[in-house]
Structure formats: C-alpha cells, structure tokens
Amino acid sequence: MNINLKPAKIVLENGDIFYGKAPDYQQSMVFGELVFNTGMTGYEETLTDPSYSGQILTFTYPIIGNYGVSDADAFESTKIHVKGIICQTIYTHKPQHYAANKSFLEWLHTENIPIIFDVDCKALTKVIRDYGVINGVMVFDGELDIDTQIQAIGQYADVHWVEQVSCKAPTIYGNGKYNIILVDCGYKKNILRNLLKFDVTVKIVPFNYDYTQEDYDGVFLSNGPGDPKACVETIDILKQALLQPNKPIYGICLGAQLMSLAIGANTYKLKFGHRGQNQPCLNLLDGRSYLTSQNHGYAVDEPTLPEDWLVSYRNLNDNTVAGIMHKSKPFAATQFHPEAAPGPHDTFYFFEQFLDSIKRSSK
Fold this sequence. Notes:
The protein folds into 2 domains: 5-158, Glucose Oxidase, domain 1, CATH 3.50.30.20; 166-362, Rossmann fold (3-Layer(aba) Sandwich). It is α/β, with parallel strands linked by helices. Helix content is 21%, strand content 32%. It has 9 helices and 19 strands. The model has no long low-confidence stretch (mean pLDDT 92).
C-alpha cells in the first residue's frame, strides 16, 4: 500500500507531547485513554479484543505489521476496538506470512482506525508507568494551541463500554449435553471456541440479561472493557445466581472483578494495568507459575474478600490478585486469559476445571 505521510502528535492531559507521522488520509482528532501492551506478537487478536474499547493503544514492541493480516477466523470479534494505535515502526512492505491477505495498514484504513508511528514509544510508556493511564488526543491536522487541546482532553467523557460492546440478544452455539450461559460483557471469541471443545451448548446473553430462572448447568462470565462497577445490572443478576450453590460460575478478567463485587468485595483501578502475553502468575494452590495473557486496568481488593473465599492466583510482577475461588462451592475466576489468544496456552486447564465442576454438580 502506497501512502503519503504527514506530521502528527499525541497530546497528553499532563501537557506532554509526542511527535510522529501518520497517513495523510487521517484527519479528525481522536480522544482516548492511553495504555500500553508489552506483547511481541498477536496484534490481530489484541486489536479485536473488545476490552480495549475507548483506549488508545501503545505497542512497546518496536515493529508492528510484519506478518500482515489473515482472515477474520483469528479475530477476537468482528472489528478493531481500539480508538487509535501508537507504535515505533510500521511494516509497510509485502506481509511476510503465507496466510496474509492484506497489509496491516490496509486493515487499519478499511476499519478507519487512526495510527501514529515513528514515536518514541519507550519514552511514552515511561510516562504512562510514572503517571498512570492517562487521557490523550491524537492530532493529525491543524495547530490548536496546547491549552485548548488539554481542555478538550479533560472533557473526554467515558461511556458504559460494556453496554457498547455486549450483544443485543441471546445466541446459541453448539448442541451438547451441558447448557452453558456465557455472559457477554465484551467476550473474546476464543472463549467460545474453547468452550465448544466440550460436550456443551453455549447460550451467549447480553450483559444485563436475567438468566437466573432458566435451565442451565453453569455460567461463564466474560472479559470486557471499563470499570466493573458500571455493570450494576450484571452484578445484581450475578448475586442471584450465586445463591444456587450447585450451579458452577466461572469468570475471566472483568468476570473476576464482577464476581468480587457480587460477593461484597471491592475493586480498584491499577496505576497502568496489565496488558500483554507475558504476565507471570503463581498458582497458590499447587505452587506452579505460568506466563499468562492479560488485558485489564482494574483489580480485586484482596483484604475485602469474604472469609469463605481465597486468592487462587497472584500476579508475580506486583503481587495483585490474579484469581479467586470459593472455599467449598464451584465458583472461581481468573484475571488472566486462559483462552490465551494469541497465547500462551498453558492455562487451558481452567476450562477443563469448569466442565469438571459442572459434571460433578450435575450428578
């Protein structure tokens, strides 16, 4: 893809400015929360993860796009969810992968996703690590004065992102023995793919769908974007579901935070979150450690967990809670992504544990 470039910049709400280049077809300013991802691969899966809704994503790996973009079977949703992309170098030559059918930049152009590259992403990431996640604006045309740009950033209002990305009506997949409710708070398709490896029927329902009176064998709470405390309806429904002790409930990422809030614990916003495929976690039950895929900006406040719950996993970078479980009932959740798209795949056993708990409860 032949492109013409023009100067562009990222203005942060603390007044810092980072300069770069952008394709000349990009025009409108883009506002969002700046976060960074430390993964070395998997940009297709990362960008189509609904948990990035409302965010401008900085890639710390120095080159993006070298293997192009393949068909949508590898995607985690039907579209790119980030509001914008910042990277150091973008690969603009012929993609170096046999399955690629378009270049990375062609994909972004088709989906109207802005990008600024030739940016000092190391320095930008240091700002985010020191300051915390920070609102910013991507500027492609015009020379608005800095005060006006910072004022515009301050007026950037977050929305109920889960409501934006959740499905609008239930959908059923599979035709297996066990009936699973998958609560869609912005689920990644690989969660569904992994569940369908078992003898199950999966009913995907909206975030505010009341499933408590239906005939189901287990509930699975998905990942999703934004502050878990915004999901008031999801939490209220979950509180009712947790009253049925023989119906297993498992969750991933946002699902872990929602479960914590439903049992009376608290959540809080991390300074800069965990985003990447190289997050180390310790299984406190057996002492084994795993590299995990993560994408979240909130965490469970450990001291607020009820006495009948325990921490099952811990993030080894900062000792935050990476998993919780009930001491006697079939309720468990992880902050990391055992569906692991793009990887690693070491914690797939979480799905096996979910199905095993369903089989035991169904006897």
